[in-house]
């Protein structure tokens, strides 16, 4: 399905709303991957699943999905050969327990939801793995009873720590150490037991400095009397880690032996979480499961756009007597909302999401849904609005067929109305001949007239409140709408004389061309002054305002009022307003003087005279220059 269509119609926003009903991240991840299906059997199954899940919730309450944990990261670690930590193993055990719980719950719902309950038969119950993990790990720590070796090591650790603390307590209670001790307590720094000592006594206490406080006033000393015990303790803790690693390695391997079954369970639990999220959403919007076909027939009765709070229910039909509908009316009248509603609901249905509407609603399952809406103007490519739309529409026409729904907003706009409406009609005919279902919006009269005359096209209009200038979102089939431009202009307080003139023109009265212009005399006088300054000729001299003086004019004003000046043997264009006339050419040079010679140096003038008198040397030089230029090219 086209990503641009899904984005423009608000499909991703709708999925986010459904996602909020998920119990776990598993369901949310699956909804993120959800796309509309183009297979009618798949769509039927998804809608049926949602309906069955809805029935279960309404009769039995929510399923036991609360204990559902996301174990995808742990599964990925196992696939990469990483050993899981105790917390990750407990999460897998909890996940397997949740699988057993949902399986038993769903199998009990067979009389309510036959198909949905059948999925539960594929869930694996792996109690032996659960038991092994839960026996080995207590409170996210490997239990001492898991192995005799671990039990022995921890017993030695405990005895060694007792000896260390007894020795340190003797150190603290000794009167000779009283003045050197900062605080009378035993602290751990890293894996070493220490006593906080005043920094000024650090060289007077027998022992090893393990750490220093951030202020530097306290050092943490391992007294000499416990160094032997601390060394033993460090070795014992290393042995403990090695034994724990062996146990975790065994448990991870046990999980790996069931990895296929766990992955199947994971997929089923994700599916259940997503299906029940759709069901909860359906309950909240009072949704229905619509009928389906694959013939292009759409029958909407009292449907709502889920992304618009205040929305009048929409009735719409297409695909039987007519396959193309043109919705007309004012630009602010809600035509685009109608397009978006039809498109979004089609995407929702093909994703197994219920819609709000009458139970007799029917949707066609389309292979593709295309939309052209809004301004896709590209600044980078300097495309006009019209060009951007046509590029998109060209792509739509090339990919459309009899199983395509095409939504076109303001087709033909952005260019000359006559040409735009002609192109629009041609596009509509092409899509019709390809068998596509086409819904377009327009305010062009030519398109309205075309739709009225074509046997398989139909006009529709959206009602518009002329007093409040707000769309009513109510679609009337078989009627073409008015643009209501004059109504809107009047409400926006456009000058009355402008409105009156517009009404005369609209009624067919001739446009008055000889109306007096405001301050016409002033305007004519201004034009005379400007024309006077535009009359620069070749050979005149001018002064650049706030610049160089006595500059030769090479050419008079062009169509954009720039004159060409000869400055430092180069031609420079400048607006006539930025110069003032110094001398006219006729006042500077005698009659018959060649003005062109002013712009040639001695060499160029000599060459020109030689050519005129037929000098072979001069002609040979010209040919050589022409040859050199061709070679450079």
TrEMBL record:
GO BP annotation list: mismatch repair; negative regulation of DNA recombination
GO molecular function ontology, one term from the record: ATP binding
Segments forming a coiled coil: 119-146
InterPro entries, A to Z: DNA_mismatch_repair_MutS_C, DNA_mismatch_repair_MutS_core, DNA_mismatch_repair_MutS_sf, MutS, MutS2, P-loop_NTPase
Domain called DNA mismatch repair proteins mutS family: residue spans: 404-420
Gene3D superfamilies: 1.10.1420.10, P-loop containing nucleotide triphosphate hydrolases
SUPFAM superfamilies documented for this protein: DNA repair protein MutS, domain III (SSF48334), P-loop containing nucleoside triphosphate hydrolases (SSF52540)
Keywords in alphabetical order: ATP-binding, Coiled coil, DNA-binding, Nucleotide-binding
Recorded superkingdom: Bacteria
PROSITE patterns, per database record: DNA_MISMATCH_REPAIR_2
Pfam hit, one: MutS_V
NCBIfam families, per database record: mutS2
Protein's name according to its UniProt entry: DNA mismatch repair protein
Organism: Gottschalkia acidurici (strain ATCC 7906 / DSM 604 / BCRC 14475 / CIP 104303 / KCTC 5404 / NCIMB 10678 / 9a) (Clostridium acidurici)
Classification lineage: Bacteria, Bacillati, Bacillota, Tissierellia, Tissierellales
Originating gene: mutS5
């Amino acid at each position: 399905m086209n990503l641009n269509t899904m984005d423009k119609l608000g499909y991703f926003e709708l999925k986010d709303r459904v996602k909020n009903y998920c119990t776990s991240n598993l369901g949310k991840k699956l909804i993120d991957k959800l796309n509309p299906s183009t297979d009618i059997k798949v769509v039927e199954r998804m809608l049926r699943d949602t309906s069955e899940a809805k029935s279960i919730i309404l009769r039995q309450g929510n399923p036991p999905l609360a204990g559902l944990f996301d174990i995808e990261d742990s599964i990925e670690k196992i696939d990469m050969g990483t050993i899981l930590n105790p917390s990750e193993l407990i999460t897998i055990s909890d996940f397997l327990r949740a699988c057993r719980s949902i399986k038993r719950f769903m199998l009990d719902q067979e009389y309510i939801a036959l198909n949905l309950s059948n999925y539960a038969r594929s869930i694996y119950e792996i109690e032996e793995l659960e038991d092994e993990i839960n026996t080995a790990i207590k409170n996210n720590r490997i239990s001492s009873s898991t192995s005799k070796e671990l039990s022995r090591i921890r017993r030695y650790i405990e005895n060694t720590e007792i000896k260390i603390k007894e020795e340190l307590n003797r150190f603290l209670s000794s009167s000779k150490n009283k003045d050197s001790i900062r605080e009378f307590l035993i602290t751990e720094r890293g894996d070493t037991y220490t006593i906080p000592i005043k920094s000024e006594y650090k060289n007077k206490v027998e022992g090893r400095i393990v750490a220093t406080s951030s202020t530097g006033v306290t050092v943490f000393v391992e007294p000499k009397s416990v160094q032997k015990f601390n060394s033993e303790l460090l070795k014992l803790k290393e042995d403990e880690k090695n034994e724990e690693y062996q146990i975790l390695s065994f448990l991870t391997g046990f999980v790996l032996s069931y990895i296929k079954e766990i992955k199947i369970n994971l997929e089923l639990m994700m599916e259940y979480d997503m299906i029940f999220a759709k069901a909860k959403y359906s309950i909240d919007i009072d949704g229905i499961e619509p009928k389906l076909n694959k013939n292009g027939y759409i029958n909407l009765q009292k449907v709502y756009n889920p992304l618009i709070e205040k929305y009048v229910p929409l009735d719409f039909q297409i695909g039987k007597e007519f396959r193309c509908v043109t919705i007309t009316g004012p630009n602010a009248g809600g035509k685009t909302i109608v397009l978006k509603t039809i498109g979004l609901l089609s995407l929702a249905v093909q994703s197994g999401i219920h819609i709000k509407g009458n139970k007799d609603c029917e949707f066609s399952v389309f292979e593709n849904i295309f939309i052209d809406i809004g301004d896709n103007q590209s600044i980078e490519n300097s495309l006009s609005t019209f060009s951007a739309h046509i590029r998109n529409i060209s792509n739509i026409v090339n990919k459309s067929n009899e199983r395509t729904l095409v939504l076109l907003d303001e087709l033909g706009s952005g260019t000359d109305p006559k040409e735009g409406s002609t192109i629009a009609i041609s596009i509509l005919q092409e899509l019709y001949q390809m068998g596509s279902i086409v819904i377009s919006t327009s305010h062009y009269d030519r398109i309205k007239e075309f739709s009225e005359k074509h046997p398989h096209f139909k006009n529709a209009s959206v009602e518009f409140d002329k007093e409040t200038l707000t769309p009513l979102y109510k679609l009337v089939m078989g009627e073409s709408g008015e643009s209501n431009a004059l109504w809107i202009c009047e409400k926006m307080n456009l000058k009355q004389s402008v409105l009156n003139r517009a009404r005369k023109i609209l009624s067919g009265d001739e446009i008055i061309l000889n109306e007096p212009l405001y301050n016409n005399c002033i305007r004519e006088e201004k034009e005379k002054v400007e024309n006077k300054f535009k009359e620069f000729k070749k050979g005149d001299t001018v002064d650049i305002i706030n610049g160089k003086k006595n500059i030769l004019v090479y050419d008079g004003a062009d169509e954009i009022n720039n004159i060409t000046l000869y400055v430092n043997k180069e031609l420079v264009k400048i607006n006539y307003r930025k110069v003032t006339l110094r001398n006219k050419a006729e006042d500077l040079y005698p009659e018959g003087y060649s003005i062109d010679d002013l712009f040639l140096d001695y060499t160029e003038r000599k060459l020109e005279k030689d050519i005129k008198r037929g000098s072979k040397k001069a002609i040979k030089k010209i040919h050589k220059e022409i040859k050199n230029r061709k070679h450079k090219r």
